[in-house]
Amino acid sequence: MNGKLRVLIADDERPAREFLKNILREFETVALVGEAADGAEAVEKIKELKPDLAFLDLQMPEMSGLEVVKNLSEREMPFVAFITAYDEFAVQAFEINAIDYLLKPVEKNRLAETLKRVSERLIKTKNQSENFSNLQTAVQNYEQTVSGEKLERIPIKKRGEIILVPVSEIASIIADGELLHITTDKNQKYVINFRLKDLEAKLDAEKFVRLSRGALANLEMFEKVAPIVGGVYKITLKNGQEIITSRQQSRILRDKILKL
Q1: So where are the chain's domains?
Q2: Residue 40's pLDDT is what?
Q3: For residue range 29-80, what is the model confidence (pLDDT) as tens digits?
Q4: Which terminus has fewer CB within 10 Å in the chain: N or C?
Q5: Are the C-beta atoms of 170 and 183 separated by less than 8 Å?
Q6: Which of 16, 176, 22 lies closest to 85 in space, CA to CA?
Q7: Contact indicator for 208, 217 with CB cutoff of 8 Å
């Protein structure tokens, strides 16, 4: 490898990006070439900037780190290190397929190991094809493993009691900072302190779809989908709730759900 290791960071949480950037600045062999606040931006910047290594947050709204990998060709794919809160299924999938991962909060010594490993692999150009194959296999293994480990009910504390809300009765989940507002099919409303992307990872992706950066909805609760100005949709749920989709999610809905 000639010159510095060109690195890109993708994480939807700005403090997490700043934390990793500050550690990376301590390595003279590293050049930070870009950062992305979501998966879609990560795909665009990887294609444009062609980094040697991309640090991808495993769970990002609208397009996760796994989906970033699925949207890149072998020619476009850099070496990848996933960043995640502890996830035994992810760790197992990545370790089996020789994919680097870092657990939050990222430790400098562990980061140094990843940087060294990638630098060594870059010297052997044949590893790029192997890297692409390993990444695709790891993603498939992880998704197959977690597909059967989904929440069936959400425990919610209310007035000193714990209410178990069946996931099948939830119509929408809307984020407001660190709070999530849950609305059921009967318009019962609950609030929990949890991050949307972490809860999304525990829900069945075949049933709960991302409508925008801060909104999830149950597909079985959809009643009407109406296109509106700006290339987005107004989703009306069976409980009367109306949610406007983001442009990014409108494209995904159109391609994956609204076509026969």
Answers
A1: 5-146, 153-256
A2: 92
A3: 999 999 999 999 999 999 999 999 999 998 887 788 989 999 999 999 999 9
A4: C
A5: yes
A6: 16
A7: yes
Sole residue written with tokens 């949480």: 13
Joined together, the tokens standing for residue 170 give: 């939830």
Let me know if 68 is exposed, middle or buried by CB neighbors in 10 A (0-12, 13-18, 19+).
buried
Highest mean pLDDT among 71-85, 94-108, 134-148: 71-85
Fold observed for domain 153-256:
OB fold (Dihydrolipoamide Acetyltransferase, E2P) (2.40.50)
**What CATH architecture does domain 5-146 belong to?**
3-Layer(aba) Sandwich (3.40)
Encoded amino acid at 56, one letter: L
Neighbours of 97 (CB within 10 A): 18
Determine the straight-line distance between the first and last CA of the chain, rounded to whole angstroms. Answer: 48
Residue 239 has pLDDT above 90, yes or no: yes
User: Is residue 30 within 8 Å of 5, Cβ to Cβ?
Assistant: yes
| Count of other CB atoms within 10 angstroms of residue 209 | 21
